[in-house]
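Input record (Table S2, row 260):
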Amino acid sequence: MTYEFLWFEGLPFPFVGHTIEGLKEACTKYVIKDEDTVMVSYPKSGTHWLIEILCLIHSKGDTKWIHSVPSWKRSPWLETGQSCKFLTESERPRLLTSHLPFHLFPKSLFTSKAKVLYLMRNPKDVLVSGYYFWTTSNLTKKPESLERYFKCFIQGNVPYGSWFEHIRGWMSMRHRENVLLLSYEELQKDPRSTMEKISQFLGKKLNPEELDSVLKNSSFHVMKQNKMSNLETMPESLTSLHFSIARKGKCSGFRMHEIT
Ligand code: PPS
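Output record (PPS complex):
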């Protein structure tokens, strides 16, 4: 079965995993604490990669946590009602993940000292990645074709709304000391230095061996094999044979596609 969108505050959200009550609660009542670390991105920007990196930095390269707990429990999604439960129960410091646009984010973030990492990716790769993800999952309305999806993407008529508005909103936070802007492309180009920059931003000093482990265990091929990180634990009814969160893992993969 394929679901349509769930509409909240004029934006389309995936039907599965979201409710109006959960979104309302997250957007208006959720209290972000000073000790929290918040990862924000537009969908398909490399969020799961960043979750893996942060978890590994957090555990100083020890892989026990990433091998035993699913990523959505290690760094729960703010906007899903169920995850809000994990967050209130979880210990501090907490890692949180969100695809929410800036204007819907709980206002408590803006007065807190929580560390925010905003991850961006070339929108053409975001578009192609999203097309395959929504086509091979049953989380929400399936795109009819890449061409049609392109038109919807430009109009912001895709899950979580407009990429352009998302970037514009979060960019307004870029001068804050507690905000780090990252790109998928810099992570691909120089993963070691970028991971070092992230650990410095988080105030977590790693020795070279610990950093080696972060690098190795968050690599595309290692993550693809880790069922706690690759969404393999998602119910079969929500995915198809070709579904994978770790699909290609490359920059400029959009060049393989032609949109006329
Ligand atoms: S989601 O569903 O919105 O949370 O998706 P998200 O995790 O943001 O993005 C999925 C894309 O990230 C790629 N990915 C990686 N790239 C490089 N290295 C690692 N370790 C990695 N893990 C995930 C994944 O393959 C998706 O991109 P595409 O272009 O579809 O391959």
